[in-house]
Amino acid sequence: MTDPQERTPHMTTSTGFDVRRIGGRIGAEILGVDLSGDLEPALVSEIGSALLEHKALLFRDQHLDDAGQLRFASLFGELTTAHPTVPSVEGQPRILPVDADEGIRSNVWHTDVTFVRTPPKASTLRGIVVPPYGGNTLIANSAAAYRDLPEPLRELADRLWAVHTNAYDYAAPKSEKAAEYRKRFVSRAYRTVHPVVRVHPETGERGLFIGGFAQSIVGLGSSESRDLLRIFQSYVTRPENILRVAWTPGDVVLFDNRITQHYAPDDYGDLPRLLHRVTVAGDVPAGVDGTLSHVLEGDDASHYTPAVA
Hints:
The protein is α+β, with helices and mostly antiparallel strands. The protein contains 6 helices and 17 strands. Residues 19-279 form the TauD/TfdA-like domain.
């Protein structure tokens, strides 16, 4: 695959839409595509290729409804339900409301739902209610982070496995709604062992597969685990590896959940903020030696995600 650093800032695809890079190491805006219409297979394929290259794609001013977002996300694979433990939008079992008024503020770096064995392949977010300031989404390129590691740290990371859990070390909830959301989030316990370095199943890239749900390193104590995870995470969140999406209502973002992390700064006070999330089912992560992730606690999450061989 072509190194993104060698690509021109703006290119036109064979099917006629434009891809404009918006970050030095991650992110592109897609111009000239109306997601509310029927997308031809060739167009979907080129969007998929752009996603593999740029990791996160921004589609401005789309103004999809729930049905339109579901239809778009389903072009990239079978969909999950909204979440393993948290309720969906009423009447829409595959849509998760990311609603600040309900205490949902994702201001922890994470990759979606890594506490199950088959985390999502990709996530779509749709801006519905956006605060007049703040409320951005940050998306980080974990493959670039892996490449930034000094060789001794890369060699160490290649051999490590981490335990991911939904019962991670939450901060004290700031409201009754936040406390209730946390209670629902941990209502069913999950612990899964994933490789610290995941090999992307389509590109073969290696990326740091950690984030907020990764709580310990297999074979190490809590102190050593925290220190190592902090060191690796510091490479993921370097500013040069991050795209900042400033939302306007109607925007849609598609990102590759297998090789990114994301974070939503809690910087908009009591203002409303509402996004809808739809995720595409993924496969079982594989480490550098081909070994697959395995479950320590919890069921197979078949109520949430289709089993992918």
